Amino acid sequence: MKLYRICNKISLLLHVLASAVGYFVMEAICRHSFIEAWNYMTQKPLVFAYNTAFIFTSSLIVYLFRRRTFWRILVTLFWLILAIINGVLLMNRVTPFTGPDLHLITDAMKIANKYLPVAGVVAVCILFGILVILLLMLLIKGPKHQKKIKYRYNIPLILLAVALFAGSTQIALDKRVLSNYFGNIAFAYEDYGYPYCLATTIFNTGISCPRDYSESEIKRIEKTEKNIPETNEESRPNILFLQLESFFDPTLVNYLNLSEDPIPTFRKLMKEYSSGYYKVPSVGAGTANTEFESITGMSMHYFGPGEYPYKSILKETTCESAPYVLKSLGYTTHAVHNNEANFYGRRSVFPNLGFDTFTSEEYMAKEDEKNPLGWVKDSVLTDEILKCLDSTEGSDYVYTVSVQGHGAYPDEQILEDPEITVSGAPTEEENNKWEYYVNEIHEMDNFVKELTEKLADYPEDVVLVMYGDHLPTMGLTVEDLDNKYLFQTEYVMWDNFGLQKKDENLAAYQMAAEVMDRVGIHEGTIFRYHQARRNTKNYQVDLETLQYDLLYGERYSYGGESPYQRTRMRMGIYDVTLDSIQCVSETDHTYYIKGTEFTPSSEVKLNGEWYDTVYVNPTTLMITGTELNDFDRLAVIQRSNSSTRKPLSKSYDRSCYALYADNPWKLNVDTNTDADMESEQ
Questions:
Q1: What are the residue boundaries of the structural domains of the chain, listed by start?
Q2: Which pTM does this prediction carry?
């Protein structure tokens, strides 16, 4: 009891100490190393102290309750569980646990096996159950504070502590101890600590209402665009964007020695066509944000730190974009990505950006052509892009997102006979990473060569913009680069009809407007703004106001209501069809399922149940083990390659008797369509 009384007298001091120790453990879990946590604490003491104060302030709630032991343990567990979640996620992905991830908490059990083995998931569930029971016992039977709680003192003191903490946050931002702009969310967590960054991604989202926001202010901004010419009614070239994953010029890294130029094609195209540096909103990660800027013309600078609009506002509403604007001129709009459809939530988001079709890896016959890390090679994209162009008689907008250059890059040498060798990095492990990366982007450069050669002979006018989405995840610093800037890659604006070469540096959010301007298209609120106001006074200030109006405000630019409706997006360019059944072996009941547009992601459903399916080729699937009866019903489903394995689309449901090749009653139905699968999600 004596010890209890002593502890009670110095409880605030112990509270501070516990907060510091607890925070250190959190960072050790997040960084997967106590040594890294120690280095962080000693090298950034002010940041460490700030986050300790954060945890301390959040735990002051215990002084409002008599069962303080219970509440102390509960608050500690809260922070500890968040740290464990982040630590587990960082073992399997580049980006840490952020505010938008909280929206996915209901799907946590569905995808838990992606990060933990089945036994691990079971163990976690058991431990969680035990923990809940122990907490309930502690709440009921645990020790109580014996004295009466003085709320009239405690509440004001807690509020004072919160106010002081808020003030310290502002001071830390002003003195640049902290930052409220994250170019790379993973690096931000390392620099500014887990509690601060997590809280920032939860509470600081969207675009804040500008001080002078009003209808009259929007009208004033619109008047500054009066000199923009009308759209050229005759100019409707195909417009292609190719976003190359982690693609940049490694010769800009001043310590690297390369046996040969890894990107000779891209470099040659830069000399012959319009080109320059491409300013991107992130470094080392953040593909979806470069994508967002390039598609919408909106700058990420005005959003919350570390925010992904794909995970926030675009899940809720449509957004003006190049696809929507070009659709109004008769374009058909396509998205192509050689990774799973649900990555970054693209399947849900793209209809809110105006895309008519989306071809993900699940709809690519060559999706099994992968690099050593398991990413689908970019070479498969050539045919998919051409398929988009060939699918319509009119003009097309095709936005392609590549994936081959994706990390994390191996620190061991996994290439047996690399075409390009690398030296000069500080360690052998880093040399191995660079060597792998350089050889991957060399293959991507070969893909660029193949694509441009085929498009050169295409019978329609084509503009193709190619660029890297961000620098690779190599821990590069400004001092490592000849161009002394981390937030830029390079671009080429290639064409097959003789556009004049014009070299200039552009931001990702300016590119779509620039392409439209070059081909005589002057449509869309945000794109006309860029065309009229780039490099003018108050350009950035007015851009922030305009973005707020279009996404979060009263939409004065549209007369109060957005004209853009969510599209009924088709997965894949062409329908998957189910045409016939051929019995291969009656002994073991082996059948060929014949149709079109099959891929390795195609799977048969028999009478509503999933059936083990073997992919043979784009027109043939094989099933075995069960005799098919006349009135059994078959469908071919394109299943997601994500851990959820959700259906993406399906063929028309057919009865077996109507599919047998030798059946005189076989139906010749050519009206099969991909069914909308949203109801199955």
A1: 2-203, 215-558, 574-680
A2: 0.83
